[in-house]
Amino acid sequence: MTTVSTPSITGAELLLRDFSLEMTGKDTPKLQVTAESLPVGTRINVTYLGNEDLPLRREAARSVRSLGLNPVPHISARRLESQERLEEFLAALREDGTQQSVFVVGGDPTHPHGPYTDSMAVIRTGLLKQYGVTHVGMSGYPEGHPNIPDEALWAALEEKSALLAAEGLEGDIITQFGFDAEPVLRWTAQLREREIHWPVRVGVPGPAGVRRLLSYAARFGVGTSTSIARKYGLSLTNLMGTAGPDRFIRALAAGYDAATHGEMKLHFYTFGGLSATSTWIDEFRTTEGLK
Description:
Elements: H1 11-16, E1 20-23, H2 31-35, E2 43-46, H3 54-66, E3 70-76, H4 83-96, E4 101-105, H5 119-124, H6 127-130, E5 135-140, H7 150-166, E6 170-175, H8 181-193, E7 200-205, E8 208-209, H9 210-220, H10 226-232, E9 242-243, H11 246-255, H12 258-261, E10 264-269, H13 274-287
Parallel strand pairs: 1-2, 1-10, 2-3, 3-4, 4-5, 5-6, 6-7, 7-10
Antiparallel strand pairs: 8-9
Helix pairs in contact: 3-4, 8-11
């Protein structure tokens, strides 16, 4: 993969080109307003939650597509009860024309609901390509995973990358969110050293309440020491406040080197709401002179 570096373009501008966001099926009614502030073709990941059914997920992906945006439906491996359910989902996406890009994740359940223990098990079926998928997103964990050793995470990424390449599928990696840019930059450099050259979409929390951000951080094993919190702009003494990722993005942009880190973009987790996140991005791009 060829990396293009243009000296006249700032790091923040490179990172914010082709950014992506995340939504749930329940966000569909708000999508029309949100879409007005997003560039045409923006990738919108549609999550696969346990309390949302196929019609809701399907309608969300269709709505994204109808608004000139690119849907990326999630497939949660451990939530799938059977191969039949997987094929039902893929067939529905194909029928709607929303199957081109998917994001495959292990999912939250501790014990699988069916035959798929992790995302690799779904990829190995060969069903993704069979149903018209051409691009597959994978998870990355710059700060590690609370329940999986680092070497197991690296081995899984290497194997998934090889599997996708063997099937002629494109891919990218969406990282877990964090509050410190340094681990992300180190991890991405290590990724390239291991000859994994898929684009990396760095997970960024959209603006949200401090209490909510810290709650998600505790759930996913994200570092929130006093020094990290201060660096990000979180107030550990004012949990009623809100925080946005402006400092994080500026720090990431300052440390980003295309030759070392390859292709990097931003992926926004909309903890504070889809509309609030899209508005924040629009305002940040204006403030930074990126529009």
